TrEMBL record:
Its EC number is 5.1.1.13. Keywords: Isomerase. Pfam families: Asp_Glu_race. This is Aspartate racemase. The lineage of its organism: Bacteria, Pseudomonadati, Pseudomonadota, Gammaproteobacteria, Vibrionales. Gene3D superfamilies: 3.40.50.1860. One of its GO terms (molecular function) is aspartate racemase activity. It is an enzyme of class 5 (isomerase). SUPFAM superfamilies: Aspartate/glutamate racemase. It comes from the Bacteria.
Length: 359
C-alpha cells in the first residue's frame, strides 16, 4: 500500500556516516534552499557503513568479509529507512552509490541519485570535466559513465594526483576524515586542480567525494583564488548541492515494509544502536551533531587517540519532531529517543564510553 498521497507531507531520508561531516554538509545545504512545501526528514549517520581504518585503500572482492559486511549493513540501513516511511532518499556519499545501486532495485523507496543529478545539472557543457574523488569512485567510472550519457567528456586525475587526493582525505594527521579541515589538505587539493588544469585544459571540476566540498567551499575557493592557489577560471561543481536541490524539490513515494524489520538482518550485519534525537529543524540537528563531533574529539584526545576515519564515529539519527510515528517505531526497536542539546550534554560521556568499549 502506498503511503504517499497529495496531502502527505514529504518525508526526506538522508543516509550518511561515511563520513558524518558530509551528512551535516548536506543538511546545511538543504536548509539553505527554499522548499516548495514543508517536509519532514530523517538523517541517519550510520558510521558502520564505512570501511574500518585498516580496510581503507585496499582492493576487496564482493565475497570478502569487508564487502559482505557493508552489503548487509547497507541493506538493513535501507530497510530501516523504509520502516521509518521516508518517501525520497539521498545518500551523502558518492562512492557508496556503487554498492547501494545493487540493493536499491529491491527497496520500494524513491532514490535520488547524486551522481546522476550532478551529471544532469551539466547538460550542454561543451568542455571536458575533471572528476575528483576517492580512488574507488574513480575506478568505478560512475561519474564518467553518467557524464558520457549526457554527452560530456570526463577526465580524471593522474596517478600521482590521485594519491594526493587520498592523502588529503584519509591522512590520519591532517586528512578531512579526522573531522577537521587543515592547511595541508587544502594545499594538496589545490595542487591537484592546478596541475590537472594545466595538463588537461579543463576548467570545471566535480567534487565527487562528499569530503571535498568541506575543504573546497565557495568561500574558501574564493580565498584560494585570491592567494593564487587556484586559477581564477576554475569552477568547482558541488555534487552535494545538486543532491540537496533535488531532495527538497522531488516528490517521492514508498511502500510500507511487508515483513518485520528484523527479518532483514543479514549474517554480516554490523550494527550499533544510533544516538537518536527528535529535532525541530535541520538547524537543530546540525548543532547537535556538531556538538557530538566536539565531544568525540575531546574524548579521544584525553585518551591519546584520534578519529581514525568514518567508522570511528558514533552512529547518529535525527528526525523531525512532528513525525511522531518515527519516535514510536524507534522505541519499538529499543532505541532511546532524546530531545535537545541539554539532553546530549547529560548522556554523551556515557554513550561514548560504551561505544568505544567495542574498539
Amino acid at each position: 500500500m502506498k503511503i504517499t498521497d497529495n496531502l502527505h507531507q514529504p518525508r526526506i531520508g538522508i543516509i550518511g556516516g561515511m563520513g558524518n561531516e558530509a551528512m551535516v554538509d548536506l543538511m546545511l545545504k538543504m536548509a539553505s534552499l527554499p522548499a516548495q512545501k514543508d517536509y519532514q526528514f530523517v538523517a541517519f549517520g550510520n558510521a558502520r557503513l564505512a570501511y574500518k581504518p585498516q580496510e581503507v585503500m585496499q582492493q576487496w572482492l564482493p565475497t570478502d568479509i569487508p564487502e559482505l559486511r557493508k552489503y548487509d549493513t547497507a541493506t538493513y540501513t535501507l530497510r530501516l529507512m523504509q520502516y521509518l516511511a521516508v518517501d525520497q532518499l539521498g545518500l551523502a556519499c558518492n562512492s557508496a552509490h556503487e554498492l547501494f545501486r545493487r540493493i536499491l532495485p529491491n527497496i520500494p523507496v524513491t532514490f535520488v541519485d547524486m551522481i546522476k543529478q550532478t551529471a544532469t545539472s551539466l547538460q550542454g557543457c561543451q568542455e571536458s570535466v575533471l572528476v575528483m574523488g576517492v580512488s574507488s569512485l574513480i575506478e568505478s567510472k560512475l561519474y564518467q559513465i553518467a557524464l558520457t550519457e549526457e554527452g560530456i567528456k570526463a577526465t580524471q586525475p593522474s596517478a600521482d594526483n590521485q594519491a594526493k587526493i587520498m592523502e588529503a582525505i584519509y591522512n590520519p594527521s591532517f586528512g578531512i576524515k579526522t573531522a577537521k579541515i587543515t592547511h595541508q589538505a587544502e594545499t594538496l587539493l589545490c595542487e591537484v586542480i592546478r596541475d590537472e588544469m594545466t595538463k588537461q585544459g579543463c576548467t570545471k571540476v566535480i567534487l565527487g567525494c562528499t569530503e571535498l566540498p568541506l575543504a573546497l567551499t565557495a568561500i574558501s575557493c574564493q580565498r584560494f583564488k585570491a592567494q593564487g592557489l587556484l586559477p581564477e577560471n576554475v569552477e568547482v561543481i558541488d555534487a552535494s548541492m545538486a543532491l540537496a536541490q533535488a531532495l527538497v524539490s522531488i516528490q517521492g513515494q514508498s511502500d510500507a515494509l511487508i515483513q518485520p524489520l528484523a527479518t532483514y538482518q543479514g549474517q554480516y550485519l554490523d550494527w550499533a544502536q544510533p544516538l537518536a534525537f527528535k529535532v525541530s529543524s535541520l538547524a537543530e540537528a546540525i548543532a547537535i551533531q556538531q556538538r557530538i563531533f566536539d565531544y568525540t574529539v575531546d574524548y579521544l584526545t584525553e585518551r591519546n587517540q584520534t578519529l581514525a576515519g568514518s567508522y570511528f564515529h558514533l552512529p547518529t539519527l535525527f528526525f523531525s519532531a512532528s513525525a511522531a510515528d518515527i519516535e514510536h517505531k524507534l522505541q519499538a526497536l529499543g532505541i532511546d529517543v532524546y530531545c535537545g542539546i541539554n539532553a546530549l550534554d547529560e548522556i554523551i560521556t556515557a554513550k561514548l564510553a560504551d561505544y568505544y568499549a567495542d574498539f
